[in-house]
Amino acid sequence: MGRSHVINVDLADVWSDPERTKLLRTLAWGDQVSVVGQTESYIEVEFKRFQETPDGSILPSVELGYIVPRKSSGVGAADVVIPKRHNQVLKISFVDVQQGDGAVIESPDGKVVLVDGGDNQLFARYLAGRFQGTTAEKPQPIECMLVTHGDADHFVGLPEILRSESHPEVRKRLFIQPKRVFHNGLVKRPGTREGKRVPDRELLGPTRKHNGELYIVGLEEDLLSVDDDEMNRPFRAWKDTLATYNDRARLECRRLALGDDEAFSFLADENIQVEVLGPLVTDLDGVPALKFLGNPPKGPRIGQESLATDDLATTGLSASHTINGHSIVFRLTYGNFSYLFSGDLNDEAGRFLTREHNRGNLNLRADVFKVPHHGSADFSGAFIQAVAPVVSVVSSGDESARKEYIHPRATLIGALGRWSRVAEPLVFVTELVAFFNVEGQATLTDKRKAEERGPFFAFSRTAFGIVKTRTDGHRLLVYTDSGNIKLKEAYAFSLDGTGMPKPEDVVRV
Questions:
Q1: By three-state DSSP, how is residue 264 classified?
Q2: Of 123, 238, 267, 498, which shows the fewest CB atoms inside 10 Å?
């Protein structure tokens, strides 16, 4: 068994032998390896490799390989890795879950926070590959599962983690033990009652009129205490999942709003600061309330209207826009670099937050920006201008005509470029960093389905879309994988004397 180390350069190629005959994999800054031997010219490591099997499955295996730095890199073998105990790299990965959101935050000490989880099994599959070897006796600790808001494409995939425990294939099983669950307090009620559609104003719980506006006053704290009859089907499944985890170990379930920064105190000993910036709660005689939002003007809209910070001219009441607009928004800072997570924030709510930013009550500025609502046209240009991102990540994906929303919209992509604080900002889209092989004509193996579908032209996904970021607080690395083992799209930044990000050469050995 080798000694536990982490990679200490941006990218490190692992070869089959010290002569660099065959490239096996490229590891990144902060990735863990076991060092089994070392000379002046190379390091022999045990590492995880993913290989395609004859049936098309991509399976992980632990192998031996050699990191042999190029002389031109100026990096010696002794500098390529450092002992794991000295690791200072924060890792945040944005995972392609198709139409939805799913991100993983891993602190230098190994604390894990899950932000949303899509609406299918993809997030669970990714996590099972990332945290291998878990069992009921040795589950992966999860410091927090944060659901930005209660739309299915942000949390229905999380119960799939629990279901994976009984998967017939061991490699697809994942056992976790979450300690905390954070949410925005809004629970969707059943959409029909006695065979009739429930009006939007009744879909999110009790409401109250105040100064001519409607507010939701039935915000929930502990999801486990909500009656099943007050939840739609996805929420009931989520509650059942949380109940199972709670039976195994006490689970903290908490509603977050602006100012609840102490909820993330478990990261403070690693100098990771989290500021909760939304939703903005209104106090109605001691009762916390969220304003019911309306339908935005039909779009996409082009022009200065999107830069306004005054109230948006909405119509009616919209439960979907309300639950989106009151997403949990939080800013994570580590050293000199910051991330902003914005859920499905929309134009109306974005204007609220931007006004508070302009008044100095909160800080939206961030280097890495998880773009709201999968790149929807319902965005606030003023909000993006306040964030002024250097790196933007849009989480979106095509699945079917039913889930096609033309995400990301061209207006949104243009705004991300226009309002960045650097001349050449980076804009990533999770579905676009996935890679596919052309397979040609194919037929389904299920006879009945094959007769219905007929032959079709097939593609296979060879690399899932994951945007990976790494930082020690002084330097930032952003990279994606490729279907070609030799290729990575990678960028690095440091900060100049004024605190502005500046491009750096990516160090690959």
A1: helix
A2: 498
What is the rounded CA–CA span in Å between residue 244 and residue 186?
Answer: 21
pTM over 0.85: yes
Q: Report how far residue 62's alpha carbon sits from residue 47's, in angstroms, rounded to the nearest whole number.
A: 6
CA distance 14 to 39: 15
Specify the DSSP class assigned to residue 139.
P
185, two tokens: 């307090």
| CA dist., res. 249 & res. 242, Å (int) | 10
Burial degree of 404 (CB within 10 A; 0-12, 13-18, 19+): exposed
User: What are the two backbone dihedrals, phi and then psi, of residue 15, each rounded to the nearest 5 degrees?
Assistant: -110, 165
Domains of the chain listed by start with CATH number: 3-86 (2.30.30.40), 90-433 (3.60.15.10)
Q: Name residue 282's beta-bridge partners.
A: 289
- The encoded tokens of residue 500 equal 């502005």
Query: Closest Cα partner for 180 from 143, 136, 230?
Result: 143
Give the separation between CA 251 and CA 453, rounded to whole angstroms: 46
- Exposed, middle or buried, 138 (CB in 10 Å: 0-12/13-18/19+)? exposed
pLDDT digits (tens, 9 = 90+) for 78-89: 999 999 999 999
CA 435 to chain centroid, in Å, comes to 19
E strand or H helix that includes residue 242: helix 233-248
Half-sphere exposure of 370 (CA within 13 A, CB side): 35
The CA–CA distances, whole Å, from 117 to 352, 379, 395 equal 26, 22, 11
Q: Report CA torsion sign: 145, 151, 157, 162.
A: positive
Six token digits for residue 152: 């299915």
Report the C-alpha gap between 152 and 96 in whole angstroms. Answer: 16
| Ranges under pLDDT 70 in the chain | 1-2, 50-60, 399-405
The residue assigned the tokens 């609502």 is 373
- Asked whether 65 and 16 are in contact (CB, 8 A), the reply is yes
Backbone Cα Rg of the chain: 24
325 secondary structure, DSSP code: H
CA distances from 298 to 47, 102, 313, 371, 408 (A): 52, 28, 11, 21, 17
